[in-house]
Design a protein that fits this description.
Number of strands: 7
CATH architecture: 3-Layer(aba) Sandwich
Radius of gyration: 17 Å
Number of helices: 10
Largest sheet: 5 strands, parallel
CATH superfamily: P-loop containing nucleotide triphosphate hydrolases
Strand content: 5-15%
Length: 236
Amino acid sequence: MIFTMNGIICKPLAKKMLTVCFEGNIGSGKSSSLKYLCDKYDKVMSLCEPIDKWHDLRGHNLIEMLYKDLTRNAFAFEHFAQLTRLEMYANQQHTDDHQMKPIRLMERSIYSARYCFTQNLFQSGNLSKPEFIILDEWFKWLSSKSCLKVDLIVYLRTSPETVFQRVKNRSRSEEQEIPIDYLRSLHELHDKWLLSDIKQSENSPQVFTLNADLPQKQLLSLLDSHFDHIFKGILN
């Protein structure tokens, strides 16, 4: 049986340790989706973005610094964000959870960091060419490692206008500096990567796209209605 949604084909996945990345723009509903699924299914674990470390690097709020001065702080933030993602992943590999919970949900990945956020900073002139090359070389090396491969991407697709309003509503102080043009650029890069480029690459993960413009309750219900099918034979 093949499940089709928004033109994206997603077959039920074979039973093994699976890595599923939830991707999408800022404010698209990634963390709430991960929490909901982990609370409901006991065979699911989550790896959320280490935002607490980005908020406090020995007293420095890197997220706030990034949005206040993209050009000056973009390289430092991207470099540290990549380090903390890997640290989080490595720490999880040394726990017993992966033996009891065969589905690992991740909030974003090294792939969206490279194809969306790093690319956006470079295109907007906030990363110099040497800085971009350094981050790209790191990405090429990391993405060649089999332990970092992704089995499925859940793309929570939103309009820039929707996430801009959500960012304003949740009132995180450092995010109030984010302009809507920044969100529009990220939206375009997510679409290019997940709806175009990834289809043309061999051995790429499947992409499951959901309309994340929906209110949270409806989005979680939609996600839940398909989760059992995608992971048939694993959750039971």
